[in-house]
Amino acid sequence: MTMLSISPRRRREWMEWLSGYAFLAPSFIVLAVFTYFPVAYALGLSFFKWRIMSGAPTFFGLGNYQLLFTSDDFWQAIRNTVYFAVGSIPTGMAIALFVAILLNRPMRALPIYRTAYFLPTVTSMVAVSVVWMWIYHPDVGLMNYLLEQFHLAPIRWLNEPRSAMPALIILGIWRGLGYNIIIYLAGLQNIPEHLYEAAQIDGANRWQLFRHVTWPLLTPTSFLILIMAVINSFQAFTEFDVMTQGGPLGSTTVIVYYLYKQAFQQFNMGYGSALAIVLFLIILGLTLIQTKVLGPRVHYQ
Amino acid sequence: MKKLVLLSLVALGVIAMACAPAPTPAPTAAPPTVAPPTVAPKPTEAAAAKPTEAPKPTEVPAAKPTTAPTAAPTSAPVKITFWYALSGATGQVVEAMVAKFNQTHPNIPVTVVFQGTYADIANKLVAAMTAKTLPDVAQMGGAPTMAESGVIVPIGDLVSKQDLDDIYPGFWDYNKFGNQIVSMPFNNSIPIVYYNKDLFTAAGLDPNKPPTTWDELAKMAQALTKDTNNDGKIEQWGLNTNTDTHWYLTAMIMQNGGKILSDDGKKVVYNSPEGVEALQFWADLVNKYKVMPANQHAQANADFVAGKVGMIMRSSASLASVTTDAKFKVGAAPLPCKKTCSEPLGGASFLIFKTTPEKQKAAWEFTQWMTNGDNTVDLFIKTGYVPLRKSVSDNAALKDYLKSSPNAQILVDSLKYSCAIPTFGELGNSDEQLRLAIQKVELASASAKDAMDAAAALINKNMAGQ
Amino acid sequence: MLKKLESSLIHLLLILGAIVMVMPFAWMISTSLKSQNEVFSYPPVWIPPNPIWENYVRAWQAAPFARYFVNSVIIALAVTLGTLITSSFAAFAFARIRFPGRDALFAIYLSSMMIPHQMTIIPSFLVLKDFGDFSPALGLDTYFALIAPFIASAFGIFLLRQSFLTLPNELEDAAILDGCGKLGFLWRIVIPLSRPALATLALFTFMANWNSYLWPLIVTNSNTMRTVQIGLRYFVGQEGNQWGLLMAAAVFVTLPIVIVYLLVQRQFVQGIAVTGIKQ
Fold it and tell me: Which residue range is the domain that position B144 belongs to?
């Protein structure tokens, strides 16, 4: 009796909803088991005090969070992370876009260039660290050699608190460029050629082409890159572990490095979990803000 | 409404944790009656086999003499797993040793698993603790920190008087937590000075006379610090140290008569006048004598083998690799002394985990074998990890090696100064605070006294709170 | 004339940039042929005078690399394929299907990228141990343990969703008129038109998985299950690295990714615009 009283339209709507959930099911199951469960685990653990080497966990309520918010090291880590994000994201995106556009035109050496710009992302971190340690070497490094050529004072890059983070920002941009270039290239591929042709017929010059055709149609890609860049830069870790170990004087201790030290060197799992949850909430907050503010500005069609 | 959300989040989290296998460590009582039906006698052993042994008492019997070549007969093979975290040449030595053990001890087949670096194996052990998939024996750095975890069998319960006497006391101290011996020394090293003999000669110094006191260190370093191309900047430095700066500072504090830990083990006391003096000397090397570049330790190793640094403080374990990496003649010397000489130990140890009495016994036998005289000499020859035992002075292979390598002789001679601070809960944190204090004085952002006071205050606060 | 000048300028910029990009990779290759005492000198030596090709042979023999390669390839391919499939489905749902809670669910999916992966390792390890108690083929030290946690990727879903959203709505209308169901629309129209995004996702997934080290180390103990990144660790030591061998191993471990990249970047043909619609 109920089936007859549902209009075909309602039924189609339900079928659509069902298909939506069905299409999500496989990925959701995997994420639930291997990501959401760990998040819940970390959340639960954050209310306990647990130094693994010393025995069983003891309940601690909000104690870890209290310790966290009153810790100078934590706030320094936040400041360092924001500094890193602000320093590397806009510049990195701009350079990636610029290079991607240059690499999107027919050129004989195109595959070579594309591969060259991609190599930093696949080069072994050991090699990256050795070469960049040399580049940044205060006495015999390439950077200071160049500065000298331009009659500028040498900088003690990784060895001094003021210059260490800028040095790592440059390294971070260098390493992430390849990824962003590829994503931008993929986005550029989606822009139909005939739109360029039509605009050119209308007499648009190159800057106008970029501003009225390329950039608007790249906004979905830029949006993706920006969101991912925020998520990734707030979780940056490897360069900080390998190049400076969070120093000098804690100037390059970013949040995940601080977390790593607490959870995996001091084995303070409870405190580390609280840090992870706080970081999670920060990134979530930033992402929601970006979506609300910038989301409407993205042109999909 | 908000309270409800908060409560349900907490509930969710607690449920999630409850659903995961309880992360409590293994029960503190050793497994009482794990009978060996799991180790049924194999058919091939049946002929000469005795009846399956009754469950052993939980006390493992006293250790056998370390030079016993074959194990006492047991009736069935006891399989054990061994995790280690050494690579390169050292890793190869370990694997070869285990292979030899397996050949000579068919009743204790050992499955050996490489587990990356010290950081990696620590991660792995933590995961294994939570999931209860621990191995039987493992080699790791910072082993005594696991003393209170409840999952290990303290070596102090197993070791014989003979071993206690034969192995230098410093090595036992290094493996203590509080007053209990927790782990078995295996690959240990001392901090030494590597120096570039060619640069010494070029600076007019005798390449066979490295510095023996703090004053000599500063003076010789000054002779070695040069502006090689007359551009107003120093390209060649007299002195530098590897990144584990806390180790060398600790040595200096002790050489100056200072202590790290108070006698009751309840607080750190390196901000004593002796400790502050040591840090001040370090600061002077950078800012007054100007022989060491400020906070340039990450590049120190590369700089030294590239011929840009006259002397470097680094682990003796790197002797083999520094010698092959350098294009010049490498000299080795113990750290220069002040009021006394002091060589605090570094390195890693073996831990035995609580499993079944049979496996623990087998693990102990394995451990003893791996640390016996022949093997400790073999490790020393192929790496730079120092020999553990006094009794190896008669070892033929060692004697030959010492004849051929004067640097190795120097290492062995320095062992009489070896010492260690027993591990305490905040040791890792404390080392880090010392490194921070060093950074502060090198970058001239704090005085030696303030830096030391800050470090000690932080650690003592943590120690009081535990 | 101006065009030529501009073209040369562009080439100059690109070349300078490319040199900076390539330097560490070049150092990797050059060091793989050096003997231990040639590795550190200032300035670095880019072309070793006596290349030691044996480094490659010795590096290969130092660890069970043949088996490690087989494992890495199987796992990376499986994860890539799985991710492409699950992500296409999910991205399609987010881009082209209407259902209640869609935006909230998308936010939840994105949030899965916001927890540092170091914190997910132990709980995931515990889960797999539980699976293993239930059935050994699903537990620790298995392909399942190495593949299963990674076959869903919020990044992949995000990437594909953005791409799917840019397809003209008219396409869908045409498909409905032709009697195509959702699945047909996805399979026959959306996917072929999204080749650059799919290729990008395939590349990144393959790379991330190929380079992953910590998870394989934690969940495996047997050499039959381990991967190439663990093999690399054999040359990284407390006392000092075996540079020539390490870099030689790094080179042959990196080679597959470069090959995958070259294959994938062929999907990026300049100016492709297959929309099939006449404006």
Answer: 77-188+347-417
The CA distance from B304 to C240, in Å, is 13
On whether both B304 and B220 belong to a single domain, the answer is yes
Torsion angle, alpha carbons of B269, B272, B276, B281, to 10? -100
Structure token digits, residue A181: 């270039």
pLDDT of residue C57 exceeding 90: yes
Of C129, C222, C238, the CB nearest to B133: C129
Mean pLDDT over residues C86-108, rounded? 92
- Which chain A residue is nearest to residue B435, measuring alpha carbons? A249
The distance of A92 to chain B (nearest Cα, Å) reads 27
Chosen from A27, A112, A177, A217 to mutate, greatest number of chain C CBs within 10 A:
A27
DSSP-assigned beta bridge partners for residue A292: none
Q: β-strand B137-141 against B110-114: which pairing, if any? A: unpaired
Average pLDDT by consecutive 10-residue portion of chain B (466 residues)?
Answer: 45 48 35 32 34 37 43 71 91 93 93 92 90 92 87 91 90 90 94 95 93 95 89 88 95 94 88 95 95 93 92 93 90 94 94 93 94 92 89 89 90 90 86 95 94 94 81
Listing DSSP states for A4-19 in one string gives: HHS-HHHHHHHHHHHH
Sequence-distant (≥ 6) Cβ neighbours of residue A11 within 8 angstroms = none
| Residues B365 and B307 both lie in one domain | no
ipTM of this model? Answer: 0.87
Residues B89 and B148 in one domain: yes
Indicate if the pLDDT at residue A179 is higher than 50. Answer: yes
Query: Is any Cβ of chain A less than 8 angstroms from the Cβ of C154?
Result: yes
Q: Determine contact, residues A120/C21, Cβ cutoff 8 Å.
A: yes
Residue numbers of A between 172 and 201 with CB closer than 8 Å to B: none
What does the pLDDT read at residue B466? 60
C8 Cβ under 8 Å from any chain A Cβ: no
Cα A80 to Cα A247, A252, A253, A264, A293, distances in angstroms? 11, 6, 7, 20, 25
Amino acid at residue number A125: M
Going by DSSP bridges, is the β-strand pair A58-59/A48-49 parallel, antiparallel, or unpaired? antiparallel
* Nearest chain C residue (CA) to A176: C21
Question: Is the CATH code 3.40.50.970 the one for domain A79-297?
Answer: no
Q: How many helices (H) and strands (E) does chain A have?
A: 15, 2
CB pairs under 8 A between B and C: 106
Structure tokens at B266: 């309840």
- Together in a domain, B227 and B322: yes
Put simply, the answer to whether C230 touches B116 (Cβ < 8 Å) is yes
Average pLDDT, chain C: 87
Gap between the Cα atoms of B298 and B393, Å rounded: 37
The answer to whether residue B436 neighbours chain A at the CB level (below 8 Å) is yes
Residues above pLDDT 70, as percent of chain B: 84
Same domain, B106 and B224: no
Residues of A in contact with B126 (CB under 8 A): 52, 264, 267
Res B28: pLDDT: 33
